[in-house]
Amino acid sequence: MNLNVLENSKPHVSLLSGIAVAALLLATTSSTALAASNCIKGDRKAPYTIGWANIYSVPTWMKQTEGTITDEVAALKKEGLVKDLKITDAQGNAQTQIQQIQSMIDANVDAIIVEAGSSTALDRVISDACSKGIAVVNFDSLVDTDNLTAKINTDSNEWGQKAAQWMVDQLHGKGKIIIMNGPAGVSVSDDRRKGAQPVLDANKGLQVITETNTEYNVAPAQEAMTSLLFANPEIDGVLSLGGALSAGAVLAFDRQGRDPVPTTGENARQFLELWKQKGLKGWATMQPNWLGALSVYTAVQALQGKTVPHFVKVPLPVIDDSNIGGYLARADKFPADGYIYSDYDQALFDKLLAQ
Q1: What does the pLDDT look like over 321-351, one tens digit per residue?
Q2: Residue range 156-285 in CATH 3.10.180.10
Q3: Taking CA atoms, which of 25, 90, 116, 141 is between 20 and 30 Å from 8?
């Protein structure tokens, strides 16, 4: 046996091994570049079909949000990136929403945008969509599972904390308040309430005399507050964790001829207008309707092989006496029972996705 031949062959074998490893790394890198975000396998091509799985469409906030989604889809269609948008409405039923999402999976849509009716019930079907290479983006009302492409939201916990702290400051740490929550079991409502609790615990002089859960509409909120006013002759503040809830509360006080009390809320047009008309002491923030449009944009970016954050945090603005006029100056551009939300564009979306 010629040992020199064996010795001379070693570099050759090493070279071949190096080439193989390099090829493997190149293939892996290429695959990663095409599938940089969770759920994405890199095998879907534009134009994409987008599914919008909504829990319910009746509240005006939802209608306005759907408007931002359809507008974003229209813009992406012009760019040749989106072909179709499929919309479902579960009418408040989480089991119906599961079935509708499953139908989207069976139809092999490219992306599913989810406004969840339950934080836990949708976990399995969302994971199933993800495993099939469907981009899943969940916004506003979030699910527990992280087996999706992205979650997009403001910090609901921070929302509750800031609202509660404002109330403490207004009442100098003493007084009787009512808390108005959105529907029980909806993550944004539950998280806002959880965020408020540490502030309330630290300020024992602030007495929560009662609290209620209602859907995010003025009429049921007004009815609920009317009942609470009859039962509670002394109320110093309303810690409302939703704009339509706040408007209903102010209207209930007004109808009973009672002076308004410090009230928190959000950017619901009716609440902001009542705030100004009644000389209310108010504080508000915003859950931007364009979270829906951002979700569509994020899904398309992911499908194109771009890396998107697993969680996109959208900063909470503050509305107070110093800037409420700016919001009301644009009120006529929004429905009377709608929300005055801030402007948005692709530059803003790119900035948020660059976090």
Answers
A1: 999 999 999 999 999 999 999 999 999 999 9
A2: no
A3: 25
